[in-house]
Amino acid sequence: DLVEGGYAEAKGIIKPGDKLIGVTAVKVVGAKWERRLLPCTTWNFDTVVDAIGSNDSKWGCSDVVLLFERPGEANEEEVKKHLEFFEPPFDSMWKRA
User: Is-contact 50 43, C-beta < 8 A?
Assistant: First the structure.
């Protein structure tokens, strides 16, 4: 749901019923860090909030990228195929704890 009177509602770009399917996140492992857009369709609320919060200015982030699907306008199979592109490889630091 959109927050009544909030930024998203005021801009009118995100509509009620739109589904969040991707979000940028920063992951730090040792002295290395990486920011990438990740599929988030299987994440719980807290994981999404943590990902959004990881886009901190100390990592050079001045924004957060949110990717939405609008049901009824998007072909679900094409969306799934598109999200596969953003799925990290199995040996990526994003797949390790």
Answer: no
